[in-house]
């Protein structure tokens, strides 16, 4: 099970310096296109889940990969706990075709850059979305260990009170920004 928190309005260069200074390894530097899907009756979103095709291009090597994923929110207290299933697939077109054949509809296509650092067993991900979607950079800190997640948050110079387990949609709404995405994402 994945535990996740977000830290908003980050200073990207500061986060990079801290990660490099702590010996974290840059494991991803990629451009992503995320195709978010659900059934016409929104049964996945209504149960706090969704299906996604993610096209990834590595900014260092140019390598391209495509992943098919389902996610479902298990709980959201201090951490966002997600049940996630993901597999590498042949192509974006194949994945979109499978979703279409299953009756899923495309709800949204989100483009962003993601820079990910591995520190111990925790990922620290710097996300920069299209400004029309999320107009500020943020971190996602993902771990399977509560203790390690809290350790990383502290290492980055934050407290758990500085974090959020809300979805991007909920964060935007709380800031008075009308999200372009369906509620639940």
Automatic annotation (TrEMBL):
Q: Which Gene3D superfamilies match?
A: Hypothetical Protein Pfu-838710-001
InterPro entries, per the entry: Adenylyl_cyclase_CyaB (IPR008173), CYTH-like_dom_sf (IPR033469), CYTH_domain (IPR023577)
Q: Where are the transmembrane segments?
A: none
**SUPFAM superfamilies attached to this UniProt entry:** CYTH-like phosphatases
Database matches in CDD domains: CYTH-like_AC_IV-like
Task: Tell me where in this chain the CYTH domain is found.
Answer: 1-174
> Signal peptide location in the record?
none
Q: Which PROSITE patterns match?
A: CYTH
Q: Which PANTHER family match?
A: CYTH DOMAIN-CONTAINING PROTEIN, SI:CH211-156B7.4
Query: Which named protein is this?
Result: Adenylate cyclase, class 2
């Amino acid at each position: 099970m994945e535990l996740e928190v977000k830290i908003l309005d980050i200073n990207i260069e500061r986060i990079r310096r801290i990660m490099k200074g702590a010996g974290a390894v840059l494991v991803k530097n990629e451009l992503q296109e995320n195709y978010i899907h659900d059934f016409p009756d929104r049964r996945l979103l209504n149960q706090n889940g969704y299906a996604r095709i993610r096209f990834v291009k590595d900014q260092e090597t140019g390598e391209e990969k495509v992943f098919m994923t389902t996610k479902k929110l298990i709980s959201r207290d201090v951490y966002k706990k997600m049940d996630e299933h993901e597999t590498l697939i042949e192509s974006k077109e194949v994945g979109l075709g499978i979703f279409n054949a299953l009756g899923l509809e495309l709800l949204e296509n989100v483009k962003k850059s993601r820079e990910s650092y591995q520190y111990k067993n925790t990922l620290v991900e710097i996300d920069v979305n299209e400004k029309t979607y999320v107009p500020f950079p943020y971190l996602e800190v993902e771990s399977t260990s509560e203790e390690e997640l809290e350790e990383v948050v502290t290492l980055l110079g934050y407290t758990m009170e500085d974090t959020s387990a809300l979805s991007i949609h909920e964060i935007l709404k709380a800031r008075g920004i009308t999200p372009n995405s369906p509620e639940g994402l």
